[in-house]
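**User:** You know discrete backbone vocabularies at least as well as I do. Would you mind producing a protein record, from residues through to fold? Write it directly below this note and I will take it from there.

**Assistant:**
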Amino acid sequence: MSTNNSNQKRQAPKSAKKIANPEGPLTVFTPGIGAVSTTFMAGVELIRKGLREPVGSLTQMATIRLGKRTEKRNPLIKDFVPLADLGNLRFAGWDIFGGTAFDAASKAGVLGRDDLELVRPFLSSVDVMPAVFEQKYVKRLKPKIVKKGKSKMDLAEQLREDIRATMRRHGSKRAVMAWCGSTEVYIEEQEVHRNLKNFEKGLAKNDPHIAPSMIYAYAALKEGIPFANGAPNLTVDVPAMNELSKMQKLPIAGKDFKTGQTLLKTVLAPMLKARMLGLNGWFSANILGNQDGEVLDEPGSFKTKEVSKLSVLEHILQPNLYPDLYSDYYHKIRINYYPPRGDDKESWDNIDIFGWLGYPMQIKVNFLCRDSILAAPVLLDLVLFLDLAKRAGLSGIQEWLSFYFKSPMCAPDLYPEHDLFIQMTKLKNYLRFLMGEELITHLGVEYYSEDSATSKGRRRP
């Protein structure tokens, strides 16, 4: 393990979890070849060429503290845990519009023409396959090329064959799939989702409550591939998928990449609670003009996103524990499709709070962000961490990856943790656990031997 303070190698303790080495190519499958996935792919290629830096990626740029502060052991995460090398990533996906990944990136308009030209041959070589699509789940999009099948199980089998054929072409023995498609209309868990037996019967009988994203997740897990859900769709957040992931000994994670406005909420809301400041109301508005904005302009898809975004404050502020501060606040979210803005999303938050003796105050935040620029490094980290998790033998919901999601998945008897800083602590501690390092609690108190009266009770650095 190399550090940024020393060139000496340090052997991990024997308690470290056994993790297989990341040998050979790793194929990244993305259902949806659009703004997020092409920005991610192009960015990885530009970074591999040494033309850009991986800004925003913890796996590539962040360090992790090991042991006491006085030890000064702060390796980069990528030097601490055995992650796949960026040079070994291969890419493929499915889309409803046809064309190449370069065509999709050009249409999305996230990256400048100069950057796109630098990676034109690479993007043009990415495998783009006809997608599984059902109009009622994404009503605003008009597909040009989709798969046809006798049943949803037939469509799942077609996806599985796509996966096998692509991995053969890439020479890959490992893969990760991440949903980068549009937000589907809102659905709630049904009987068909309660267990794997029901789900597979539903696939065979074309159950209307099985959305396209679920078919992708099923195909990936059946093929031994970890799955992450980058949208607020139900997808893998149902018992049937959790059952399948454990049966196949595969990690799953989701849902909805945490970028933009919700990222800010998971920073600001913990501040209010930490200082015991009350909340009267939080009004959130957004404008964006990309395909995501067009899809969310439809009420069914918007509701899926709204439910994802609304849950953040409830879980962070815990009004049941602090009724005087948070039991009666007003929370409203608006997302408006505004085509001239493209992928450059703008959000406004008006936050009405109250402090000592109930006196009112306000916080106003205007965030002009680039949606896919924030999402691309999130996708990269999830791909690398899920591959790591599989090689470490982890299965089921990976709650330590909650840091990356608006609506994190968790065990049925738990509530999701939304606080960004608690999520970060959990993520880094889990990496320490995997490598057999001491977990960091920040308590810092240690009593030394009574043989040394001067050291007893001394605070640990």
Remarks:
- The chain is about 35% helix and 15% strand.
